[in-house]
C-alpha cells in the first residue's frame, strides 16, 4: 500500500456532511455497523478519495450524536482492513487501495437464462438430476426412522460423562479411521448380528453413507470407469458416482436383486453397487446362489463390490440374512453401514468395513479430504453400543415398525383390496405401492403433496427411462400407527383420480 503524501492530502471539511446525509439515528442497524458501512462504501466507490483526512473521532461523534468509542472502533476496523492509515499526532487518512484491474461498468450481471452457465458442466448435471427430497418428515416420507422414540436421556447421560472425561484429541481434528472404541463396538456388533467377517482394524468411521460413497469413488475408480447400479436403485449412489466421472450402467433387478444380462457380463465394471439384504427401493432379497455368482465374477474380473446394508436390522416375520461380505473369500467387498436408520439421521455417523489392504489409504484420504471431527460423538456412540442400549433400541423399534408396517398393509387392503400390488413389504421402513404402467407416478406424488401427503415416485429411482414399473414409495417408519389410516385415505383419494 502506498503511503499518503502530506502535501497531497485533500481537506476533510466535506466529510461530516457526506456522513450526516446518510447516517440515520433512528435506523434499526447499530451505530457501529451503520457508520462502518457509510465510510467503507464511500472509500470503495471513490467518493472519499485517497488522502482524504477523516475528522477527529471526538468531532465526528459529536456531529452524529453517538459515542466516541463507536467512532474509534470503526476507524480501527477500517485501518485493520487497509481502508485508512493512521499515525499518532497526524490524524487518519483514506488509504490508496490501488486501481481496479478492470472497468467495473463492463461487468454485467447474468441474465436469468444464463445463470446456469455459472456452474460447470458436471455441476449443472448434478443439480439438474438431483433427487434429494425437500421434505424429510411426515406421512409417508420414505427412508426416515422414528426419531421421537430415540432414548435421548440415556444419550445425554453418556454424553455428559464423556464431556467430563474428554481428552484434547477428542476435541480437535480426527487423524485416523475413527474412534477406536466405536470401531471395536461396530466390529463386534456386525460379527454378532450381520455375519460380517472383520476385525476392528478394518472399520473406518465416516460422516454418513454419502461420504463413504465419495471415498469409494475417489479411491477405487478413475474418471471414465464403469459402475453397475441396481435399476431401480439408490439415487444417492448414482449422484456420487456420476459426479466423479463414472459411466453408469443400469442393471435390471429381478426377484433376487441385481441380475446382469449376458451382454453386460462380457464387459466387467470397475464398481458394482448392490443392496442384497433389502434391495432399495423394491425390497428384493438376494439368495445365496446369486450372491456367490456375483462374488465369483468380481474375483475373476477384479471388480469392487460395494454392499449397502442400510436397514437390514428390520425384517418382519423372518430373521435378517447375513451380509454378502461374510461370503467374500477374495477381499473384493466394501461394506457400507449407517446409524441413520437405526438411531437418527442427523447423527451423521456411518462406517465402512474394508479389506485390510485398503484401510490405511481410506483413513488417510478421509483426513486429507474431509478433515473429520465428531470424535467425541463417536466415543458416546461407542458407549451406547457397548452398554447394550443400541441392541435394546433396535429390539424396541423392530416391534414398533412391524406394527406400523401391518397398519399400512391393512390400510392399503381396505382402500384398494387386491387392485394394486404391494412390493417389497416385509422389511425396512418403507414399501412400494404398485401402479398401472400408464399412470404417471410423478404426477401422483405431486398431487399427493398438495393434499398434504409425502411420497416418492418409483420412476425416480430408475436410470432407464421411461421407467418399466410405476409405483409410490411409502415410508411408515416416522408415522404413528393411529395416523396411518387417515393419511393413507387422503393418498388413496388422490390415487383414484389417476386410475
UniProtKB/TrEMBL annotation:
It comes from the Bacteria. GO terms for molecular function: transaminase activity. InterPro entries: Aminotransferase_I/II_large, HTH_trans_reg/aminotransferase, PyrdxlP-dep_Trfase, PyrdxlP-dep_Trfase_major, Tscrpt_reg_HTH_GntR, WH-like_DNA-bd_sf, WH_DNA-bd_sf. Residues 29-97 form the HTH gntR-type domain. In the C-terminal section; belongs to the class-I pyridoxal-phosphate-dependent aminotransferase family. SMART domains: HTH_GNTR. Keywords: Aminotransferase, DNA-binding, Pyridoxal phosphate, Transcription, Transcription regulation, Transferase. This is GntR family transcriptional regulator/MocR family aminotransferase. It holds the Pfam family GntR. It comes from Rhodoferax ferrireducens.
